[in-house]
Fold these 3 entries.
Entry 1:
Amino acid sequence: MKAMVFSEKADLSSQMLTLFRNTFEMDLYTTSNENLLNFGAKNVFKLTGNNLYVDNISEKLAEMYKNNGYDIIIIGSSAMGREISSLLSEILHLEAITEVMKIEPKDGIIATERFFYGGKTVIREESEAKIFTVLPGLVDPQPVNSSSTENNISIDKDSAIKVVDQIEKPKSSVNLEKADIIVSAGRGIGKKEGLAVIQQLADVLHGEVGGSRPVCLDYHWLSEERQVGLSGKRVKPKVYVACGISGQVQHIAGMRGSRMVIAINKDKNAPIFNECDYGIVGDLYAVIPKLIEAMKK
């Protein structure tokens, strides 16, 4: 089965190629200038042009899909990728399934797996869909010895979208997806000043600070880039320490790939204790200083 793969992000492109190279024959389409020739694609097509945006990129991808005999389209789930998938679905009149974790051909149809009920469970579906968006962070990119054929495709048609002004969003230096250790704060810390002890624990562990949706989006105690959850970052560190986090399904969906989960919560019935490897029932302001002291020794 032949797949067209697209992402504007190099890391997401290499993840998808690693994930599906033993399942599909793949051609990668990307606007990234990074080297992606050693991840298993048959061809790598670099899309170039002076005014690239979702509309003219989608039109070119639709053209290539029609002319090259692809069976399915796999798109990395980024802001741009999700928009392009919806445009391709409309242009090509093809069904799309979003945010999948697994894609398997089965007797002429496609079986997929994705989170359901806000991440509480995983649903397996069989359908005749042809367009799929894939979650980031499912695998670590692994190069292969062979090399793809590299091609350039110039998109001459200008986008119909005109940017009249651009205001840069403040960027954080944190990259939670790459962190080996994350210490996350939930609404159970009670106050913004409580982040100081969370930061101290992260420092002694040489980790990064993350947070739940309330801490990042509702209270704005942490920046949006530090949110872990279904609507935030999906992380898979070696160690994830959940401090004052109850364990709602939306948050669990974002950190379920963690190798080891340690939970600190004063509520012994908190759902987070069903997801952790080690749980500590107690006031985090009493527990964390003792942990820091012990680790410094």
Entry 2:
Amino acid sequence: MNSINASNMKKTTLGPSGIECSAIGLGTWAMGGWMWGGGDNAAAVLAIQASLDAGVNLIDTAPAYGLGRSESIVGTALKGRRHEAVIATKCGLVWHTQQGTHFFEEDGHPVYRYLGRDSIIHEAEESLKRLQTDYIDLYITHWQDATTPVAETMDALLELKKQGKIRAIGVSNVSPETLAEYLRYGPVDAAQERYSLIDREIEQTLVPLCTENNVAVLGYSSLALGLLAGPIDPERKFTGDDQRATNPRFSAQNRAKLKAFFEELEPLRTQLECSFGQLMIAWTLARGSVSVALCGARASKQAIENAGAGSVRLHDAALELIDAAAGRHLGSLA
């Protein structure tokens, strides 16, 4: 497996903000436990600290990840090390009000998509408390709210920025049309969207607009919920509320396709002395569509392995080989 050298980590800048961060970010959704079959707070804290040690300084979280649990874990992990981290968190999925549009139920709480001004101001204060900090580096609208004008949402974000409570503004799960509307009212530093070897739609839809307007693209689910981390044991069971238990991508038939895909890439993996997960993360960065590859982890071993991808360099022939193998084996997974 590729060895870890924090100094080898690729760096990038979050749009007009000028904030520099690692090109690999740590995603903390699974740390919140919700939809991942529970979690271990102590292990999560160690995973965050291991990420920092390995050169990954962008930590991505959200209130909805365990109804504040993930943010609280991040706050605990960064005690005494806040200055080392770039914290990205989110707003717009709320359970303190029933305004907006009902989205889902989480641990008995109805959660709404709502980006009204007063709600955003309230959410920011709650996040600051949980994160144990007085500023958020990148504040992202988690899901878009059709009931609130973008002008009102952006006004609240710009006010928070003026107050120094946030340093940069981001959007997530957004159409090009809605992003263009945000840009009418002020600078957007980052757009966070799903992107991986088997989720490439934004290359044609959102990425061109982001490139034109200097908006950094943060790709989440770089390993497709773990699907691309390496061959999955045919006998492995996903239990509890783990979303993978009912996700058709994790079917026995698809696991067989993945096995064939990874077998074809084994010589390349061996040559590069990396894991399959590192190979997939390196592909994500090398393709040039995203500035940051966000990778989830719940344990130090996972976090350290993900960080090691920052030292993997792929030449054009390697990219062509990976794309060709994906075309042969994974086309029907998307």
Entry 3:
Amino acid sequence: MSHFTFEYPFVLLLLILFFVCNRWCKPKGTALYFPNMMMLQEASKKSRWFLNSLKIVTLILLVLSLASPIKEDDVVVKNDKGYEISLILDASGSMQEYNKFGIVKEIVNEFIDQRKHDKLALSIFADFAYVAVPLTYDKKSIKRLLSRLEVGIAGKQRTALYEALFLSSNLFKTSESKEKIAILLTDGMDNTDTIPLDVAIKTAKKYNIKVYTVGVGNAGRDFNPAVLQQISNGTGGQYFSADSIERLQEIYKTINKLEKSEIKADKYVKKTYYFQYVLALALLFFMLYYYTANKE
């Protein structure tokens, strides 16, 4: 998170002092009166206004530069590798019914926000499976891509469920994290036969991945609960069934609590200074003021 501020904001009080003095601390001098004084005053009125404006702008910029404008960025440094979580989403044609995919995206977005110090990955499957985002700390990239994903992006006719688990498991091939999790959500049954179920489960177990399976819709009709239980039981995870939005939200909250990250992180503030630009602008206005005043 970044924001603009001043390193020495109390210096800005000088502006109040300046405007107070400019209004009530007028210098006293000897007054001389000439014929046609009104004409002389009118002739110099515009010139005085311009010079005064230059003087005020110059002083404001000088005070702003003394206050030292900066941009502060909060930088979080992880002290541990933490959790690594692969999100595997069914994007087949059936997920278009009742806007299931849109609802899932919203719930997954909320889940991503909860995993502040973890690495996340995103995989999609339908006619085929593919990794949309590999394991990364960059939550913004995942959320940005997730918002653009729609049903049909990987086809609409088939459900490559086992292939998705196998492909996603291979993301952890070089991982050294102690906690590796996959959350596999589907409303269908595998019908591609590209990867056998036992191979997909063995691959997940090989890399010590705990798989949480989530069936959406009617168990037995839309998805095969026995298969999802086999996957979760074989990897040390859990199987969940969701037949409503509320239940789906509850499931992701439950998984978040079950795998609560206790990662400690150090935070420091990175400062970017901009006073030099403001000071350069002030000097430019001062030179213009000096030139205009001496020209007259």
